[in-house]
Amino acid sequence: MTVIQINVPYPTLLHRADFAVKNRINPEIYFSADDLDQCRSTDIQRLSEILHQHQLEITFHAPFMDLSPGGVDRKVKEVTLDRFSKVIDLARFFKPKSIVFHPGYEKWKFNGNVKMWLDSSLQTWGPLVEVAEKQGQMLAIENVFEETPDTLLSLLSSFESRYFGFCFDTGHHNVFSKVPLSVWLKTLGKYLVEVHLHDNHREADEHLPVGEGEFDFNQFFALVSEQKLSPIYTLEPHEEEHLRRGLEAVKRYVK
Question: Which one-letter DSSP state was computed for residue 201?
């Protein structure tokens, strides 16, 4: 049976670890910047031991608010690298299957200058990928505001590392993509590590349960099957009730 990860903020998981254990919640732990600043080593050690003791599988989601791994401001990039490095350091305790990051490309912010973003991004991701390879830790960059897969392809192909892959987000694609699903999977399928499963009505990032919006999950899972891909699947509920409905809905597609 395929394990489904559930996105859970670190403070929530820390205080409700018993709920996660009782309900077999395999967490994708989201660390905000504040979490990285405030987390205590004793709590990290205790939580990681609880999750491993009960054989729950773990993934990570790195902070993203205000960060810019491909930014032009040196100070902003220094903070971004520091935040990302701290998340990778925490992986030593939790042993996550993957760590998801936002790559930070927005065509309006960069005025469509992909080369400027890419050149800057390579400076950030170079040392991170090097550490990931030494630790045997998978990193994955997620589509957010990208309208096509081209910028992510340019970044991933610059490294061609087995520890640097792609996380496809169904909800972000549904709102922002200008090209079909088939183009995304044909272009980035070989890099696919993880999938974030949530839905919307194409107007906002609503994070609805699978099947409650307008994303074509039938086509998506058919394409995944055709390419014989086996990514990690993660639900991203923003309400506890959505968790139950999301888990029930995804059973149609993931055995």
Answer: -
